């Protein structure tokens, strides 16, 4: 299992940088929802769930944080620390986020609206579904 990074084209000049995100172009699905996570205290972890159908791309637009991604057979660890890199997270992947920098703003593009029934929050149920 390898992290699926998306390297966005950066328009950078003396005025700063700009990245454009487009559904079905550099984002591999239609975008129905965008949310962002910020102000996460040091030594705090989030996530601890998988999604039955949701696809997402996570981008650290400021600061950095780490992800554990787990497909039920293998776990990988990766760090997001650039506004020009997205991490694609498909369905049935357990995720945990940790080691947030104080200034971290983690923006997530999602393929569907918020639906609690799409979450698998019990790791044993996730493992059974993944096998
Ligand atoms: C994910 C990771 C990367 C909403 O009402 N609407 C929303 O769109 C979202 C994302 C959350 N919420 C509510 C549900 C909870 O009461 O916000 C609260 C915090 O959500 P949660 O504990 O699920 O947050 P994280 O950081 O553990 O997980 C989030 C996403 O929920 C999840 O889909 O993949 O970020």
Please, could you describe this protein's structure?
With 131 residues, this protein is mainly β. It is built from 1 helix and 12 strands; from the N terminus they run ββββββββββββα. The strands form 3 sheets. It has a 5-stranded antiparallel β-sheet with strand order 1-9-6-11-4, with no helix packed on it. A hairpin with a 2-residue loop joins strand 2 and strand 3. The protein is globular and about 50 Å long. The mean pLDDT is 97. DTDP-4-keto-6-deoxyglucose binds at residues 33, 35, 37, 46-47, 56, 58, 95, 108, 114.
Summed up, what is this model?
Helices cover 6% and strands 47% of the residues. It has 131 residues and is mainly beta.
List its salient traits.
131 residues, mainly beta, five-stranded antiparallel sheet, 1 helix, 12 strands, 47% strand, binds dTDP-4-keto-6-deoxyglucose
